[in-house]
Design a protein that fits this description.
The protein has 13 helices and twelve strands. With about 475 residues, it is an alpha+beta fold. The longest helix is centred in the C-terminal third of the chain and has 44 residues, at about 365-410. The chain has two domains: about 1-290, no CATH class; about 385-470. Strands 1, 2, 3, 4, 5, 6, 7, 8, 9, 10, 11 and 12 form a twelve-stranded mixed sheet that branches. About 35% of the residues are buried. It has helices at about 20-30, 55-60, 65-70, 130-140, 165-175, 220-225, 245-255, 280-290, 295-315, 325-340, 350-365, 365-410, 430-470, and strands spanning about 1-15, 35, 80-95, 100-110, 115-125, 130, 155-160, 160-165, 205-210, 255-260, 265, 270-275. Helix 6 packs across helix 7, helix 8 (about 280-290) runs parallel beside helix 9 and helix 9 (about 295-315) packs antiparallel against helix 10 (about 325-340). Keywords: Membrane, Transmembrane, Transmembrane helix. This is Group-specific protein.
Length: about 475
């Protein structure tokens, strides 16, 4: 089957250092990335492969409590500040003896809250591309760094240069300035990448496909779309199951057939694809929605997913018994995340809610949220119990000191401590006088240690809180 029109968006999450946010904003301006604002009507068709989106539709698609964060009037650290740049350069992917030409339309960099950012790469494949080749392109291009044999073998020629890795292509051609702002997780160990909670370093792909008008769209095709099953090593169409009943069960969970038999949506943890057999004119509205409300619907739910994975990774790296303030910070972070950004209902329109529900289900957003919330609550409770036990131990020791000192009354040698200490008299101390002397000295040292420890923790927590408030 030939696909008459293929519009693709690849989503790549990264973490950046919030302390260098202003420097990053300056670099975006230098490299001609422009801030996206709904007030700028001239940009309605600048980034979308010749299609024109509706800014008015964007304003009426999401609830107001989320809309003001998705579409800020100026770059703000609590909002999703999007910067876009048009490229419109042609390239070719060569794999298994065949070539798949493509056009890189534009790239977005959206600075999200909590140090997350999302790169969105818009790509258009040329007309009349075989369905299997479309799926092969999605399968290979979404892999930033190929590790498995099934991911290797693709060569990309773009702007006169050749690349065997997609991450090299994007870094070199689209955002050569960005890597210096990444958070360096590799210092935690050589097995960590710069995004240790980014699953397999594979981008999430969203696509809109238009077949020849009236072309039948069957269950096998929809399954292959959801699984991104292209071709095998012999370049024959490939499907990753041999059981028709499995295909039916899969589609029951992953398919939105509201507009059948002309248009279908299928969502998995790897892709969110829409396919239609309408005419070019009739499908234009759906393409524009794909680039506007559909884009932001995927973006906000992908943000939910990555943010929760980030929190899961951070609490897994806590040093037990030593990072209580980190636990406090994580609990504060998830509380702010839940109160400001995490909502069960984000879309006003019914069809948008159905897509939203599929994204939530296959990103496992609710399960991740409940898991991290319960884990952090339990971790906080255990840390509190441990801290209470430590404080009780100190109080017990101090109580012993107080009782023994009360028995002595500290009147045996207290006069020797007035003014300059009479060191020469210590040689004549009795056993009980030595006990009293040791009680006094160690009691003072213990009290100073407790006070110093409390002051250190108080100052540390205060500085951490100020730092978080500055950048969140």
């Amino acid at each position: 089957m030939n696909i008459e029109e293929t519009e693709l968006i690849f989503y790549y999450p990264v973490t950046y250092r919030m302390s260098k946010r202003q420097e990053l904003l300056d670099m975006l301006s230098v490299y001609e990335y422009e801030f996206f604002s709904l007030e700028d009507e001239e940009k309605r068709q600048a980034y979308y492969g010749g299609h024109t989106i509706s800014h008015q539709a964007l304003q009426q698609f999401f609830y107001p409590f989320l809309e003001d964060k998705l579409f800020p009037e100026k770059p703000e650290h609590r909002s999703f500040s999007r910067f876009s740049k048009a490229f419109y350069e042609n390239g070719v992917m060569d794999v298994r003896g065949k070539s798949v030409p493509f056009t890189l339309s534009s790239v977005d960099l959206t600075l999200a809250p909590f140090g997350l950012a999302f790169i969105a790469v818009r790509i258009v494949l040329h007309e009349r591309t075989r369905l299997s080749d479309v799926l092969d392109f999605c399968h290979f291009f979404r892999v930033l760094v190929p590790h498995l044999d099934e991911e290797k073998g693709a060569l990309y020629t773009y702007n006169g240069n050749s690349y065997s890795r997609v991450d090299h292509l994007l870094k070199t051609e689209c955002y050569p300035f960005l890597e210096q702002f990444f958070v360096d997780y590799e210092k935690l160990g050589k097995h960590y990448s710069h995004m240790p909670f980014f699953e397999d370093e594979r981008m999430f792909v969203s696509g809109f496909l238009r077949t020849e008008q009236g072309q039948q769209i069957d269950e096998t095709m929809l399954f292959r779309l959801g699984q991104l099953n292209g071709t095998d090593e012999q370049n024959e169409p490939f499907i990753s199951t041999s059981n028709p009943e499995y295909v039916k069960r899969y589609l029951e969970k992953h398919l939105l057939d509201r507009w059948a038999p002309h248009t279908y949506q299928i969502t998995s943890n790897a892709a969110h694809m829409q396919i239609t057999n309408q005419s070019k004119e009739d499908a234009e509205v759906r393409v524009c929605e794909f680039y506007s409300v559909g884009y932001y619907n995927v973006l906000i739910h992908f943000f939910y997913k990555i943010m929760l994975l980030k929190l899961s990774f951070e609490h897994s790296e806590i040093r037990w018994g030593k990072d209580k303030y980190v636990v406090d910070e994580l609990i504060e972070t998830i509380t702010k995340f839940a109160s400001r950004y995490y909502f069960d209902e984000v879309v006003v329109r019914t069809e948008g809610r159905e897509t939203s529900n599929l994204l939530r289900q296959h990103f496992r957003i609710h399960e991740q949220y409940e898991e991290i919330r319960e884990t952090l609550d339990e971790l906080y409770r255990l840390q509190e119990d441990q801290e209470d036990e430590r404080q009780s131990r100190f109080l017990f020791i101090l109580t012993v000191y107080t009782v023994v000192s009360g028995i002595y009354g500290m009147n045996l040698i207290i006069e020797d401590w007035q003014g300059s200490i009479a060191w020469d008299k210590m040689a004549g101390y009795t056993v009980f006088e030595w006990i009293a002397w040791l009680l006094g000295i160690t009691g003072i040292l213990l009290s100073a240690t407790i006070v110093g420890r409390s002051l250190y923790r108080g100052v540390t927590n205060f500085m951490e809180k100020k730092r978080r408030e500055k950048w969140e």
